[in-house]
Amino acid sequence: MSASERDQPAARRALGRAGESLPGGRTVGLAAGAAFWAWLVVRWAALWLGYDEPFVPSGPFEALAEGLHDDARIIDATGGPLAGAADVVAGFWFWFSDVARFLAFSTEHLPALARGAWLTVVLTIAGILLGLVIAVPLSVARVYGGRLTRGLALAYVELVRGTPLLAQLFVLYFGLNLSQYFRGLTGGLLPGIAAWVAVVGFTINSAAYQAEYIRSALESVDVGQLTAARAVGLSRLEGIRYVVLPQGLRYAIPGWTNELVYLIKYSSLAAFITVAELFFQADRIAGNTFRYIDMYGLVALFYLALVLSATAFMNRVERRVAIPGLGVDSER
Amino acid sequence: MTALGAALGAALGGIETAVGVGAGAIQAPPTDWGFIVENADYLLAGAVVTVLLTATSLLLGFLAGFPAGTVEVYGGGWLRRVVRTAGVLLRGTPILVILVFAFFAAPVPLPSGSVTVPFPGLPPVDVGLSAFTAAALGLGLRSAAYQSQIFRGALQSVDAGQMEAARAVGLSKLGAIRHVVLPQALRRSIPGFQNEFTIVLKDTSIAFAIGLAEILTRSYDLFVQQTTATLEVVLFISLVYFLLTVFTNRTLDYLDRRYAIPGGKG
Amino acid sequence: MTDRDAGTAEASARPGPGTDPDPLLRIEGLRKSYGDEEVLRGVDMALDRQDVEVIIGPSGSGKSTLLRCVNRLTEFRGGDVFLDGESVLAMDENDLRRRVGMVFQDINLFAHLTARENVTLGLRRVLGMDREAADDRAMAHLKRVGLAPQSESYPAELSGGQKQRVGIARALAMDPDLLLFDEPTSALDPELVGEVLGVMSDLADGGMTMLVVTHEMGFARRAATTLTFLDEGRIVERGPPDRLFEAPERDRTAEFLRRLTDLSEDRDR
């Protein structure tokens, strides 16, 4: 179908290459990322061992918040010639108090968010790896297949890319009641049956998108490469396997980075089929405490940290596997 | 159903869904596909909301994203830093989080009540204003962050010699951007825009989280009442999405060809 | 300007380069550097009206930069450039560029516009002409470069030589006092060079003042009033082309000219 036969437009590719990072403060970003991951890993280990209390008690922050709030009220009440200045100072003090309140709230709920983040990470990695397993043959079929295999691969890709992921999860979970097949599989990496359904959904979905990235990467490998491989005496399949794929998969890395980021963010949709991942936890806490702004803001920071880590990691991978002298394209 | 109910209750944040599924809207069907036929109007009315939301979000995304992309290429200083940072934040956060944030923590008060949109051949479509506004705001700003990258890439893909030649004729920098660089960049951004179009269309389904009565929410409201028809309902709405994406892709393909520069790749 | 046809006669018939007390273009002590790298280290020259000055020099010698300083596509550090006695630094840059046309090595036709629209863009947006007058003028100039039949073609539909002729028409239509040519034929296939040089020679014969960076020695001999050899940001030698070809004062000039001549003979073979 025309929409996907088109090459990934340059703009999209540039987007993949740009590798999201916040402007300025590279070392600050690295330090923050390292601290985040150190905390997350220790937190996961603690949860694994059954310790789900916060590392830092929230009490002191609450006390601080209240203290600051009281001070702010007193400053605010100052009259006389200094009333204007006092209002400004009080404004800052109220804001400090809010920050302390936010910190108290955060520390209290960080263990639950870490638990959710674990599922988010597992769902993402499972989805992208299992998706890759399907995507490689799918993309090879799209580029080198006969009429029938090409048509089937195309139909799969277009159907999946033409419908929302949420509708796909609905089909699997509510429509096909897929969870009945995973009854025995609770505990371990994926607590809850629904998480297995989510993995199936993400795999199906991601395979189609990855197939498109890999297809356009394969097509960007010069046709002469396969001809030369055949000339050396390799079979067609061997030529694809040993010459075209090793080059094409490298070109696919920017697309792969996009896909990883996409899965991290869209794994949040698993919440709608009862998977207790990151967003689910945040939403539950927000609903119970009615502190929507704080909780959604905090969970946004979590996702941001995951996304920025993923792009930083993928940029590293890209540099590591780069072929000397063969710049992966579109660096302007 | 209990676990599901709890999850969705949480997802909806205890907000009344303002969907208006009157019990009368649903009749007892002879078969499950018959159930679809009888409720097709109700679902298609949801598709109208989906299309409205897509169009509004894309328009908002263009109005904010186009200047943002221009600033990223030609701007400087703090303005460019602000635009880039906002872009990274919006692109790094799930649209689900953005939507619930827009709904529960919008910086401006959301309008309340609902409006009824008449649509020929369909029952009047009730649109909850607060959910629609929040959804359009969230989807629109997120789309702006992506559209800015499409336009940035397209602007940067126009050869630097074009700008130089325009300046050499005596055009000002602004005139050169307006008459020489932009017309070429806009043509080149059509394929990227096509991607963005389908992404926004599909992501309108996530407005389910804030109870907007678009087509996916309506399908949910139907199949929780008629659980034997669940598969039929979700397959039907998937088909509607598929047809919508194919139709828009075809239309944009046509535009791409129609406005291509003769002899060139654009 | 019939005296152009006889190169030797002209050199003696005309006053030496820059001796006119009121030259059209005067460059004084021009300096320019990119970072630490000094590209122009004090260049002086003057062009009278109807002069055709050809600049040669190895790549990186500062030829293109020199041209770009004249219409301020590049801002320079030291020295000054005067157009008709007025410093270009004091002029509005868009006004300056209206008076100084430029033809590029990589041509840079506006890719989204037809040949005619390429010419009318500046006429309409810079000179403020109405559509009809701009069209008439564009067609006249396209006719002058022999491209009236191609006026509705887009750049991608034209050959390299045709494109460059449109590029010349685009610059010419603005009715400039001075035309700058930055290696106008070096991006072209050899068989297309002739048609562009032909147009340039006609312009020279018509009395256009031109500052041309090129390595086409045939054109230099035929059309130039002055030949300048630029190397490492300095003028090595400057004078009537015949004198430089026959009796260069510097060894470097001689060697460079010999290499250029060999090259073009190689190509002609």
Structure description:
The complex is a heterotrimer of chains A (332), B (266) and C (269). Chain A is mainly alpha-helical. Helix content of chain A is 76%, strand content 0%. Chain A is built from 13 helices and no strands. The radius of gyration of chain A is 25 Å and the shape is elongated. Chain B is mainly alpha-helical and 266 residues long. Chain B has a single domain (30-258), classed as Orthogonal Bundle (MetI-like fold), CATH 1.10.3720.10. Chain B has helices at residues 2-11, 32-74, 77-91, 95-105, 129-157, 160-169, 173-188, 190-203, 215-223, 230-258; strands at residues 114-117, 125-128. A two-stranded antiparallel sheet of chain B has the order 1-2. The longest helix of chain B is centred in the N-terminal third of the chain and has 43 residues, at 32-74. In chain B, 48% of the residues are buried. Mean pLDDT of chain B is 84; it is low at 1-30. Chain C has 269 residues and is of the alpha/beta class. Chain C has a single domain (2-268), classed as Rossmann fold, CATH 3.40.50.300. Chain C has helices spanning 7-13, 63-70, 93-99, 115-125, 131-144, 160-172, 190-205, 217-223, 241-246, 251-268; strands at 25-34, 37-47, 52-56, 78-83, 86-87, 100-103, 178-182, 210-213, 226-231, 234-239. In chain C, the strands form two sheets. Chain C has a six-stranded mixed sheet with strand order 6-7-8-3-9-10, sandwiched between helices. A four-stranded antiparallel sheet of chain C has the order 2-1-4-5, covered by helices on one side. In chain C, a hairpin with a 2-residue loop joins β1 (25-34) and β2 (37-47). In chain C, α5 packs across α6 (160-172) and α6 runs parallel beside α7 (190-205). The longest helix of chain C has 18 residues, at 251-268. Chain C is globular and about 55 Å long. Residues 1-18 of chain C have low confidence and may be disordered. The chains are: A mainly alpha (332), B mainly alpha (266), C alpha/beta (269). Chains A and B meet through α2, α6, α7, α11 and α12 of A and α1, α3, α4, α5 and α8 of B.
